[in-house]
Amino acid sequence: MTKSDRTMMQKMGIWIDHKEAVLVSLQNGQTTVERIESNAESHFRPSGGWKSSGTNVAQSVSKEQTADERRKHQFRNFYQEVIEQVRNASLLYIFGPGEAKGELVKEIEKIKGQPERIAAVEVCDSLTENQLVAQVKSFFAAA
Length: 143
Description:
By secondary structure, the protein is α/β, with parallel strands linked by helices. It has helices at 3-8, 57-85, 100-109, 129-142; strands at 11-16, 20-27, 30-37, 91-96, 118-123.
């Protein structure tokens, strides 16, 4: 690959948690930032407290399992939306605070017949938008 081929490549940084993904795209000296909200429900919390209104534990466990399954589907749809937005990127730098980055990587790896595009996966706390852009630029400048 020549130097001109590498400069034409679209490089993307993805900061992701279970609430949102921030996509930072670098191509031909241009930087764009896009946000994608997950719209996933927060964790299930039974209402009413301990043995409220005589509800039994089995009902609560069943509701929690149903909510967990629904949340898994919502996260999967979220990851698919992110993957669709980064489909043209030649290199991906994925970072974020929790488990979402690993879950996204697993979804990307399920796609057959595509070249390895993940340059790195790193732990990173919440950052401002400017800090995210700087982090992505710094990562790809060093790579």
